[in-house]
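Technical note accompanying the year-one report. For the benefit of new consortium partners, we illustrate the data format agreed upon in the data management plan: each record pairs a sequence with a structure-token string. No post-processing was applied to the example shown here.
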Amino acid sequence: MKKLFFFLSLFSCIYFFANAQSFLNISSGISYDINNASKSFYHVPVSVQWKPSSNPRGAFFFELDEDIPFTTKSTGNAYTLNPFLPQEVTLQESIRGYIFAASIGFRVYLHKDKKLNSLYLNILPFGISTQSFKVNYKNYDDKNYEILNPDVNLKRTGVVVSMSAVYNFHNNLMLMLHLQSPLIADKGDYPLSYRFIAPLQFSIGYNFYYNKRK
């Protein structure tokens, strides 16, 4: 419901500022986590940017990012004191890390040619993000076996910063390389095998202009 509220608020603002030049950018691609060396978290990112101002250079914009996870697999060991069972078994562990972020930022142009192709940086110094981890151990017999320091489900909300390099073509297609910091939040005292995710995203998108001034 919170995500739906964000998207409804975004489109309501677009309608409200319809008298000004603005753009809506939608992009998607592939994302790789650079903060977990032992586990590979991959996602399909879906990003929405909205710039309400008619200022082409100094205007701020809002960005919503939803990272849809692939399942990350690893192994874990479980032990028992029952003499009639194997003392140690290896279990398959699966983790899905969900990410949602709402950020505000501004654009810095680096280059623009005669064909209106442009290269710029999106600087997002403040964002609120939620990371949710869902953990499952396949065929885990928790009545007879015990996992020492098992991974558990975790959900945290905190602050992030991010930046992206964007190349925008004259036909409004764009390529974006986006890096977001790990979540600034308390992970808790329970030892876990994974860290908060720092997604590095490569995306392809398109800019939709509203009331574009000639």
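Partners are asked to follow this layout when depositing records. Residues 2-16 form the longest helix (15 residues).
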